[in-house]
Amino acid sequence: MQPTPEQSPHHVYPDHWEADVVLRDGGTARIRPITTDDAERLVSFYEQVSEESKYYRFFAPYPRLSAKDVHRFTHHDYVDRVGLAATVGGDFIATVRYDRIDANGRPASAPADEAEVAFLVQDAHQGRGVASALLEHIAAVARERGIRRFAAEVLPANTKMIKVFRDAGYTQQRSFEDGAVHLTLDLEPTAESLAVQRAREQRAEARSVQRLLAPGSVAVIGTGRNPGGVGRTVLRNLLGAGFTGRAYAVNSSFAADQGTIDGVPAHRSIGEIGEPVDLAVVAVPADRVPEAVADCGEHGVQGLVVLSAGYAEWGAEGRERQRELVRQARSYGMRIIGPNAFGIINNADAVRLNASLAPEPPAQGRIGLFTQSGAIGIALLSGLYRRGAGLSTFISAGNRADISGNDFLQYWYEDPDTDVALLYLESLGNPRKFTRLARRTAAVKPVVVVKGARHSGSTPPGHAVPVSRIPDATVSALMRQAGVIRVDTVTEMVDAGLLLADQPLPAGPRVAILGNSESLGLLTYDACLAEGLRPRPPRDLTTAATPQDFRDALAEALADRSCDAVVVTAIPWVGENGQAETGDGEVLAAALRAAAATGPAKPVAVVHVEIGGLAEALAAASSTVAAPRVAATASPGAPAAADGRGIPRVTSPTGASATPGVTGTPAGSVTPDLPAQPNAPGSGAPTPSAPPTGRIPAYPAAERAVRALAEAVKYAQWRRQAAVPGKVPEFLEDTIDEAGAAERIDALLGPDPDPRGRQLSHDEARELLGRYGITVRPTLPAPDPDAAVAAAARLGFPVALKTTAPHLRHRADLGGVRLDLANETALRRAYGELTDLLGKPTELQPVVQSMAPRGVDTVVRATIDPAAGAVLSFGLAGAPSELLGDTAHRLVPATDRDAAELIRSIRAAPVLFGWRGSAPVDTAALEELLLRVSRLVDDHPEVVSVALEPVVVATQGLTVLGATVRLSPPPARTDLGPRRLPNY
After folding, report:
1. Number of other CB atoms surrounding residue 315 within 10 Å
2. Are β-strands 81-88 and 91-101 bridged in parallel, bridged antiparallel, or unpaired?
3. Distance CA 662, CA 506 (A)
4. CA–CA separation, 529 vs 832, rounded Å?
5. In 214-288, which residue ranges form alpha helices assigned H by DSSP?
């Protein structure tokens, strides 16, 4: 909708204020500015508001709006007077407006920074969270227009509106004047307001998924009259799963007297059904989908699963068709799975929903599975079925035009039926939100991800989201930081999912290996070492071992305090007649499950070769309730000094129940742990809880079992650390001039900054970094030998002479650096050699710099990715590290724990800790530098790139020899704004 010139004398229609939002009940609404075209909508809306609500709004009986009122409420300048409406199906369901006022409460213009705000919500939509969503959006609009405070007058009886203001999380003041409650809200976002906003987002998005997964009634639109076809197949699967709700078949081609199809009522449209329909599965050609969506929207359907193809996967025309589909569905308050979806499954006894093309629904279990690919979904369902694994829910989202993996993380976070979340993703439409949600979910249950299209940099078809420029290795590191278990293949995802769903988390990396094959035991031992675990020598039970021998050995290993997990290896054993027996796998499975059920709570995995029925028997849950498993404790002599690479290890967090499901005393870690921090907890850690089922995962290869176990060990360590989060040390505040840096950045960018940004000069970068306590060693230009000598005299010998030409910068291997020049003679000789070898001084741009103490050369960088946000990186300087990609990454803002982990995460980390007898360097100073860089880019989004190279870390302190800083107008922070769905 576009305004008239009369309506908008100052600003054109602000279409960026338009947004789709998910409400508290899971439905959607559209928020947009009110325009002059909305007069009739406003009048109609007001007529449907109760007299009580009108009284609360105007403090007096106000049965109808006058023409003057309608003009006032529909004509805005979008600066001093703004009105927003929440709409469903094009009709208003709520409005909010603000008017800028001065200190005396009279209409004003900028620089007045206060506004009066008022809401009106249609009674039928009260309680859906509409007013809370409108407050978030009108507050964001006000901040954009220079308004810092809202004032509101509310009648004491209007408790609902008082609660909206009170619960928003903004700093506020309240007083009682002239029979009304006077509220003043400071609109600057606070930690509390952001937490409130995200909690509401989680409830709303989880509820929107729940409405799709637990419908009371389902209509399959496009059910064929003859057997076969997509619609008829879905209806058959729905009925075959025993759906507990009402089912309907819908096809516009049905005869008027069709009656039933497959025993369910058959209708020609949703409108003919005459009863509420919660979920519609759409299986009609793409050109007929808009008609079906309109029929659903006009008759109150809550959500859609669109199986139809012919959308973004078909090119530009399909992408536009997909965008229109989402816009149409959201206009009715509906959410969509698809299009081009495979379907959804919910195995809960109260629902038993199979609205998919999967003929054999998976067994009931504790794993939630989301996939963007129908083909991958089929493969995963088949693999899980073969291995006896059960699912709580399954979603194949197809083109993922609306509901995505983020929404299901919101749902699984609090779903009591899901213990492990598995996701196959081909892209991350909103990486910032994904890592935030994944971190929160991973703190209570494992999240395992396979990411396809790792090297294509693609986005979901039809999605208007920024393309991330960060490499896949960085994406993987950021997932690890968020607690996500990132694996490379769907087979590894299933392997890890089975272990995590059915076994307790390990307390550490110590692994006992036992079995009846020495060779298979050695293969398992080698695999453990390769994955960074700490295996004990394998125990060979010999090929004559019986199931009872396996049971006794497993019980003994579980009771041993010096191990944290057990891998059982099994091959066909030799019978009394000397013949190899494939045996009855059920007998061995029963023996292993009996030992696991009565022993201490430690994970058990089985590697087997050609033992018939073993995997199936192990996958079957116990028919009786297992006896409680006694918690394991670590042996007093568990080593904790250093790992195999010579990197100091930290004791893990303590607390007997700090994190549910992660308990026990760790004896080490699969990856280099942090050295003990001043604020770190003591040495104990919680004990693992008992597994939820009697199942034991079985694997056909040692490498697969060990890899799954290694992922569980790393995840358990992350859970222990997440229970006691890191923090930013307070000592930084004394040496950081945030306000001064902000002023300098504004001056450097100027009043009309170039949107492409600008790179700072060496001196400008030194000055800005200095305001954050980062000292860069000065350099002086040396355009000729005499200037070089003068610079050295000023700085003091010994000095370094180096080129700064872009093609030679940081390339000591090309001969562009001369070090330890102790006098004028050496300097002049080096200058001549440099210019003779590499070119003229005008090309080389040589500089002179005083020598730094000897140490390890490192690189610290921070960059802003348009999709992922600010990323802090660390590695050693030099071509080998670059060539091998040996760089670690963390999201900003970084905590003390992040900084400590960052420098220990690279493969070359031992060089910093005294490798081969060298002196350990000052890693504490390095961690402080990382925290200062993190603070700089977090405090000032205009700083889009920082590179400190090299940073020479000595045994005492460090020296920053080079710095590059780039400034740019700050990119939009969608993660900090009001809640909104992706735009179409």
Report:
1. 10
2. antiparallel
3. 8
4. 53
5. 230-240, 270-273
3 state SS of 83:
strand
Distance, CA of 856 to CA of 853 (rounded, Å):
10
Region class of 680: left (phi > 0), else alpha (psi between -120 and 50), else beta: beta
| SS3 track for 899-926 | HHHHHHCCCCHHHHHCHHHCCCCCHHHH
Question: Which one, of 349, 219, 346, 370, lies nearest residue 284 by Cα?
Answer: 219
Q: Which residues contact 530 (CB under 8 A, 6 or more apart)?
A: 706
Chain centroid offset of residue 43 CA: 43
Neighbouring residues of 583: CB distance < 8 A, sequence distance ≥ 6: 572, 573, 611, 612
Which residues lie across from 82 on neighbouring strands?
A: 98
Alpha helices in 48-188 (DSSP H): 51-58, 67-74, 130-144, 159-166
User: Are the C-beta atoms of 8 and 78 separated by less than 8 Å?
Assistant: yes
- Residue 320 to residues 287, 304, 397, 691, Cα–Cα distance (Å): 12, 19, 18, 48
Integer Cα distance of 20 and 682 in angstroms: 47
Cβ atoms within 10 A of the Cβ of 635, count? 13
DSSP string, 4-40: -TTT-SSS---GGG-EEEE-TTS-EEEEEE--GGGHH
Q: DSSP assignment of 947-978, as one string?
A: EEEEEEE-SS-EEE--EEEEE-SPPP-TTTSS
Alpha-carbon torsion (254, 257, 258, 263), positive or negative:
positive
CA distance 561 to 636: 9
Among candidates 648, 526, 629, which has minimal Cα distance to 910?
648
Q: 78 and 10 in contact (C-beta within 8 Å)?
A: yes
Picking from 935, 929, 920, the residue whose alpha carbon sits closest to that of residue 949 is 929
Dihedral angle over CA of 696, 702, 703, 707, nearest 10? 30
C-alpha dihedral sign at 883, 887, 892, 893: negative
Report d(CA 881, CA 860) in Å as an integer.
Answer: 13
With residue 720 as reference, give the H or E element that holds it: helix 702-722
Measure the CA–CA gap between 604 and 557, rounded to whole angstroms: 10
CA distance 466 to 982: 11
CA 956 to chain centre: 38
Nearest alpha-carbon partner for 805 in 845, 754, 753, 847: 845
Parallel, antiparallel or unpaired: strands 279-282 and 510-515? unpaired
CA distance 234 to 108: 61
Residue 194, pLDDT score: 87
pLDDT score at 577: 58
Could you give the CA distance from residue 8 to residue 229 in angstroms, rounded to a whole number? 54
pLDDT at 471 over 90: no
Are the C-beta atoms of 509 and 468 separated by less than 8 Å?
no
For residue 798, cis peptide bond before it (omega within 30 degrees of 0): yes
What is the residue-wise DSSP string for 371-431? Answer: ES-HHHHHHHHHHHHHTT-EEEEEEE-TT-SSS-HHHHHHHHHH-TT-SEEEEEES--SSH
Q: Is the dihedral of CA 827, 828, 834, 840 positive or negative?
A: positive
User: What length does the chain have?
Assistant: 984
| H-state helical runs in 214-351 | 230-240, 270-273, 289-298, 316-331
Q: What is the pLDDT of residues 361-419, one digit of tens each?
A: 788 999 999 998 888 888 888 888 888 888 999 999 988 899 999 999 999 999 999 99
pTM over 0.85: no
Q: Tens digits of per-residue pLDDT, 100-142?
A: 999 999 999 989 999 999 999 999 999 999 999 999 999 999 9
What does the pLDDT look like over 476-506, one tens digit per residue? 888 888 899 999 999 999 999 999 998 999 9
CA dist 366 and 387 (Å) reads 14
For residue 626, pLDDT over 60 is answered with no
